[in-house]
Amino acid sequence: MAWGESASWLTGQNNEHLYQRLLDDARDAPSRNARRKKVVHPHEMPWEMSRQGLLKHLLNEQMNTRIETVDAYMQIIPPGSRSGRHRHLAEECVYVLEGRGYDLHQDCDVEITDVFSWTPQDEIKKLEWEAGDYIYIPPNTIHQHFNADPKLPVRLISSTARIFKQMGLNTLDQMEDAPEYDPTVTLNEQVIREFLRGERKGKNL
Protein backbone atom coordinates (compact mmCIF):
# COMPACT_ATOMS: atom_id res chain seq x y z
CA MET A 1 0.00 0.00 0.00
CA ALA A 2 1.06 3.59 -0.63
CA TRP A 3 3.89 4.81 1.55
CA GLY A 4 3.71 1.68 3.65
CA GLU A 5 1.33 3.44 6.08
CA SER A 6 -0.70 0.31 6.64
CA ALA A 7 2.02 -0.79 9.04
CA SER A 8 0.72 1.95 11.32
CA TRP A 9 -3.03 2.15 10.86
CA LEU A 10 -3.67 -1.60 10.87
CA THR A 11 -2.33 -1.88 14.42
CA GLY A 12 -4.54 -1.82 17.50
CA GLN A 13 -7.15 -4.23 18.86
CA ASN A 14 -9.49 -1.91 20.75
CA ASN A 15 -13.09 -1.92 19.55
CA GLU A 16 -15.57 0.72 20.70
CA HIS A 17 -19.14 1.76 19.89
CA LEU A 18 -18.46 5.50 19.77
CA TYR A 19 -20.63 6.32 16.77
CA GLN A 20 -23.43 4.17 18.14
CA ARG A 21 -23.28 6.17 21.36
CA LEU A 22 -23.82 9.36 19.35
CA LEU A 23 -26.86 7.77 17.75
CA ASP A 24 -28.16 6.58 21.12
CA ASP A 25 -27.65 10.01 22.65
CA ALA A 26 -29.55 11.70 19.80
CA ARG A 27 -32.34 9.13 20.04
CA ASP A 28 -32.68 9.53 23.81
CA ALA A 29 -32.45 13.34 23.85
CA PRO A 30 -36.21 14.04 23.56
CA SER A 31 -37.17 11.80 26.48
CA ARG A 32 -34.19 12.98 28.52
CA ASN A 33 -35.06 16.63 27.92
CA ALA A 34 -38.69 15.98 28.80
CA ARG A 35 -37.51 15.21 32.34
CA ARG A 36 -35.58 18.49 32.60
CA LYS A 37 -37.26 21.59 34.00
CA LYS A 38 -38.56 24.42 31.84
CA VAL A 39 -39.79 26.28 34.91
CA VAL A 40 -37.62 26.61 38.02
CA HIS A 41 -39.38 27.82 41.17
CA PRO A 42 -37.61 29.99 43.78
CA HIS A 43 -37.39 27.19 46.35
CA GLU A 44 -35.57 25.05 43.74
CA MET A 45 -32.88 27.68 43.13
CA PRO A 46 -29.90 26.93 45.38
CA TRP A 47 -28.09 29.51 47.49
CA GLU A 48 -24.31 29.60 47.59
CA MET A 49 -21.94 31.40 49.92
CA SER A 50 -19.28 31.70 47.23
CA ARG A 51 -15.92 33.40 46.94
CA GLN A 52 -17.62 35.83 44.55
CA GLY A 53 -20.35 36.64 47.09
CA LEU A 54 -23.91 35.70 48.03
CA LEU A 55 -25.49 33.94 45.06
CA LYS A 56 -28.89 32.43 44.28
CA HIS A 57 -28.46 30.26 41.18
CA LEU A 58 -31.26 30.66 38.64
CA LEU A 59 -29.80 28.47 35.89
CA ASN A 60 -26.68 26.37 36.13
CA GLU A 61 -25.13 23.50 34.24
CA GLN A 62 -25.46 21.34 37.36
CA MET A 63 -29.17 22.07 37.77
CA ASN A 64 -31.74 19.89 36.01
CA THR A 65 -32.92 22.52 33.50
CA ARG A 66 -33.42 22.54 29.73
CA ILE A 67 -31.06 25.44 29.06
CA GLU A 68 -27.89 24.25 27.34
CA THR A 69 -25.56 27.23 27.00
CA VAL A 70 -26.29 29.87 29.67
CA ASP A 71 -25.66 30.12 33.40
CA ALA A 72 -27.38 32.82 35.47
CA TYR A 73 -27.49 33.81 39.12
CA MET A 74 -28.80 36.59 41.33
CA GLN A 75 -26.13 38.22 43.46
CA ILE A 76 -26.75 40.10 46.69
CA ILE A 77 -24.21 42.70 47.84
CA PRO A 78 -24.94 43.87 51.39
CA PRO A 79 -24.88 47.60 52.26
CA GLY A 80 -21.45 49.13 51.77
CA SER A 81 -19.92 45.83 50.67
CA ARG A 82 -18.50 44.47 47.43
CA SER A 83 -18.33 41.31 45.36
CA GLY A 84 -15.24 39.23 44.89
CA ARG A 85 -12.85 40.16 42.09
CA HIS A 86 -12.35 37.73 39.23
CA ARG A 87 -11.77 37.33 35.51
CA HIS A 88 -12.99 34.92 32.85
CA LEU A 89 -12.92 34.49 29.10
CA ALA A 90 -16.70 34.55 28.62
CA GLU A 91 -18.41 37.92 28.33
CA GLU A 92 -20.95 38.67 31.05
CA CYS A 93 -24.25 40.54 31.11
CA VAL A 94 -25.43 42.02 34.42
CA TYR A 95 -28.79 43.67 35.11
CA VAL A 96 -29.12 45.86 38.21
CA LEU A 97 -32.38 44.96 39.95
CA GLU A 98 -31.91 47.04 43.06
CA GLY A 99 -29.46 49.52 44.53
CA ARG A 100 -26.62 51.66 43.24
CA GLY A 101 -22.88 51.32 43.00
CA TYR A 102 -20.00 50.99 40.59
CA ASP A 103 -17.74 48.49 38.86
CA LEU A 104 -13.98 48.47 38.49
CA HIS A 105 -12.89 46.96 35.16
CA GLN A 106 -9.33 46.16 34.12
CA ASP A 107 -8.85 44.82 30.60
CA CYS A 108 -6.29 42.07 29.98
CA ASP A 109 -4.19 41.17 26.99
CA VAL A 110 -4.58 37.43 26.45
CA GLU A 111 -2.43 34.96 24.56
CA ILE A 112 -3.82 31.46 24.00
CA THR A 113 -1.27 28.77 23.19
CA ASP A 114 -1.02 25.53 25.16
CA VAL A 115 -1.88 27.66 28.18
CA PHE A 116 -3.66 30.98 28.82
CA SER A 117 -1.43 33.99 29.45
CA TRP A 118 -3.14 37.04 31.00
CA THR A 119 -1.44 40.43 31.14
CA PRO A 120 -3.51 43.10 32.93
CA GLN A 121 -3.44 46.54 31.36
CA ASP A 122 -2.48 49.52 33.53
CA GLU A 123 -5.80 51.38 33.27
CA ILE A 124 -8.62 50.56 35.73
CA LYS A 125 -11.99 51.95 34.65
CA LYS A 126 -14.72 52.95 37.11
CA LEU A 127 -18.28 52.50 35.82
CA GLU A 128 -21.17 53.79 37.93
CA TRP A 129 -24.63 52.15 37.83
CA GLU A 130 -28.02 52.10 39.53
CA ALA A 131 -31.25 50.08 39.48
CA GLY A 132 -32.50 49.54 35.94
CA ASP A 133 -29.04 49.76 34.37
CA TYR A 134 -27.34 47.03 32.39
CA ILE A 135 -23.63 46.32 32.84
CA TYR A 136 -21.59 44.71 30.08
CA ILE A 137 -18.37 42.97 31.09
CA PRO A 138 -16.15 42.24 28.07
CA PRO A 139 -14.17 39.01 27.72
CA ASN A 140 -10.87 38.83 29.59
CA THR A 141 -11.77 41.69 31.96
CA ILE A 142 -10.87 41.69 35.65
CA HIS A 143 -13.95 43.08 37.37
CA GLN A 144 -15.58 43.72 40.73
CA HIS A 145 -18.93 45.16 41.86
CA PHE A 146 -19.21 47.72 44.70
CA ASN A 147 -22.32 48.71 46.64
CA ALA A 148 -22.07 52.50 47.10
CA ASP A 149 -24.99 52.70 49.53
CA PRO A 150 -24.10 52.21 53.23
CA LYS A 151 -27.71 51.41 54.16
CA LEU A 152 -29.35 49.50 51.30
CA PRO A 153 -28.41 46.25 49.48
CA VAL A 154 -27.68 45.70 45.80
CA ARG A 155 -29.22 42.88 43.79
CA LEU A 156 -27.79 41.90 40.41
CA ILE A 157 -28.74 39.31 37.78
CA SER A 158 -25.68 37.92 36.01
CA SER A 159 -25.62 35.68 32.95
CA THR A 160 -22.69 34.11 31.10
CA ALA A 161 -22.34 31.68 28.21
CA ARG A 162 -21.15 28.26 29.32
CA ILE A 163 -20.37 27.24 25.75
CA PHE A 164 -16.79 28.40 26.30
CA LYS A 165 -16.34 25.51 28.72
CA GLN A 166 -17.61 23.03 26.15
CA MET A 167 -15.06 24.43 23.68
CA GLY A 168 -12.22 23.83 26.14
CA LEU A 169 -11.79 27.57 26.77
CA ASN A 170 -13.18 27.75 30.30
CA THR A 171 -11.11 30.08 32.44
CA LEU A 172 -12.16 31.47 35.79
CA ASP A 173 -9.64 33.00 38.16
CA GLN A 174 -10.64 34.34 41.59
CA MET A 175 -8.34 37.20 42.55
CA GLU A 176 -10.09 38.47 45.70
CA ASP A 177 -12.83 36.96 47.85
CA ALA A 178 -16.02 38.80 48.76
CA PRO A 179 -15.88 40.07 52.37
CA GLU A 180 -18.86 37.87 53.33
CA TYR A 181 -17.24 34.65 52.12
CA ASP A 182 -17.31 32.05 54.87
CA PRO A 183 -17.60 28.42 53.74
CA THR A 184 -19.00 27.43 57.14
CA VAL A 185 -22.13 29.60 56.77
CA THR A 186 -25.37 27.97 55.60
CA LEU A 187 -27.59 30.42 53.75
CA ASN A 188 -31.33 30.50 54.38
CA GLU A 189 -34.05 33.15 54.42
CA GLN A 190 -33.20 34.42 57.88
CA VAL A 191 -29.46 34.71 57.20
CA ILE A 192 -30.04 36.42 53.85
CA ARG A 193 -32.38 38.96 55.49
CA GLU A 194 -29.65 39.72 58.03
CA PHE A 195 -27.20 40.39 55.20
CA LEU A 196 -29.80 42.54 53.38
CA ARG A 197 -30.27 44.68 56.49
CA GLY A 198 -26.52 44.96 57.06
CA GLU A 199 -26.73 43.10 60.36
CA ARG A 200 -24.04 40.65 59.29
CA LYS A 201 -20.69 42.10 58.27
CA GLY A 202 -17.97 40.53 56.18
CA LYS A 203 -14.68 39.80 57.88
CA ASN A 204 -12.84 42.21 55.56
CA LEU A 205 -15.16 45.22 56.02
Folded structure, characterized:
By secondary structure, the chain is an alpha+beta fold. 16% of the residues lie in helices and 38% in strands. It is built from 4 helices and 12 strands, in the order ααβββββββββββαβα. The strands form 3 sheets. Strands 1-2-3-11-5-9 form a 6-stranded antiparallel sheet. The longest helix has 17 residues, at 18-34. The chain is globular, with a radius of gyration of 22 Å.
Principal-axes shape call: globular
Report the span from N to C terminus.
Answer: 74 Å
Q: Uncertain segments of ≥5 residues (pLDDT<50)?
A: none
Q: What is the element string, with H for helices and E for strands? A: HHEEEEEEEEEEEHEH
The main sheet comes to: 6 strands, antiparallel
> Major sheet: order of its strands?
1-2-3-11-5-9
List keywords for this structure.
205 residues; globular; Jelly Rolls; alpha+beta; 38% strand; 4 helices
Topology:
Layout: H1 6-9, H2 18-34, E1 47-50, E2 53-59, E3 70-77, E4 85-88, E5 92-98, E6 100-112, E7 116-120, E8 125-130, E9 134-137, E10 141-147, E11 154-161, H3 163-166, E12 172-176, H4 189-196
Antiparallel strand pairs: 1-2, 2-3, 3-11, 4-12, 5-9, 5-11, 6-7, 6-8, 6-10
